[in-house]
Amino acid sequence: MNTIMSSLENPHVQNQERWPSPFWTMVGKEIADHLRSWRFIVLLVLIVLTYWGTTAVAMANLREVVSKAKDSDQLFLYLKLLTTTEGTLPPFHVFLNFLGPLLGIGLGFDAINSEQQNGTLTRVMAQPVYRDNLLLSKFTSSLLLVGVLLLSLTLLMIGGGMILTGVFIEVGEVLRIFGFALLCTVYVGFWLALAILLSILFRQPSTSALTAIGIWLFFTVFYRIVIELAVGAFAPDVKELSQSDAIRYNGMIMSLLRLAPSQLFTDATTTLLMPSVRSLGPVTMEQMAGAVPSPLSLKDSLMVVWPQVSGLVAATVLCFALGYYLFMRREVRS
């Protein structure tokens, strides 16, 4: 009764409760636009086909993997569904290392410049909405779509695995698989933030798309080659190095390789989905002395990959913050 009386006395409160905020209205409109676009449908079909193919291969080889397991308590059956392969088709997380950037770039390369090319940016800015709501709604809507897609595939994999194998999933496996889905969302979010930044920098959508794909190709294909050439040119011969110097040089090379987002994603997903991975760098015999040959707990795996996860999140925030700064200072009426 008090709520009704207050709404009658103050009609603005009633209107605020009835209508959603402009931000969520714009998010809903962006999600509807993505769902109706052929670009998103093609990318969705590619990811679903990849997921179906890799899961089918893992299911076909699951019996052989289970028969080779030494300890049934440390089998991690559902993690095997994401990592098992027979060699003809890479596992799902390796495919996502390639398709995830394409999904992020495809959703964000024309986020701002297409609005300006079509003349709709000035119309939107003429409405009583904050300017940053437009940029935030573009990023939030695409990230929500990616998160829902990966969460749906994860739940489908868990449900299908329980039906086909009849084995209940452990809590640790559930947390690792949901952590993997969250990590994939962050990885796609980085490429999405980068694509939106390029859509602010360049007025032509084709230019921003080609630039984003060029950056992706450089870090995926050419970056490792450049690092190896630089190391081969400037590093001393391995035969002349002592063990400590060789480990130090190897650590330096790994640090340079981890400037690439794809390397951070590979390290993080491998450690999360394979509890037997205990380290991501060279380990000496002294460090291995006394180590118990058992899988790591989820907490220990997260401690191993925490630098990689922090790096991906920091790169995503940096790209979005730079795009936010440039968009807020941009003249949208020209």
TrEMBL record:
<dbReference type="GO" id="GO:0140359">
    <property type="term" value="F:ABC-type transporter activity"/>
</dbReference>
<feature type="transmembrane region" description="Helical">
    <location>
        <begin position="213"/>
        <end position="235"/>
    </location>
</feature>
<keyword id="KW-0472">Membrane</keyword>
<feature type="transmembrane region" description="Helical">
    <location>
        <begin position="40"/>
        <end position="62"/>
    </location>
</feature>
<keyword id="KW-0812">Transmembrane</keyword>
<dbReference type="GO" id="GO:0005886">
    <property type="term" value="C:plasma membrane"/>
</dbReference>
<keyword id="KW-1133">Transmembrane helix</keyword>
<dbReference type="Pfam" id="PF12679">
    <property type="entry name" value="ABC2_membrane_2"/>
</dbReference>
<protein>
    <submittedName>
        <fullName>ABC transporter permease</fullName>
    </submittedName>
</protein>
<feature type="transmembrane region" description="Helical">
    <location>
        <begin position="305"/>
        <end position="327"/>
    </location>
</feature>
<feature type="transmembrane region" description="Helical">
    <location>
        <begin position="175"/>
        <end position="201"/>
    </location>
</feature>
<feature type="transmembrane region" description="Helical">
    <location>
        <begin position="143"/>
        <end position="169"/>
    </location>
</feature>
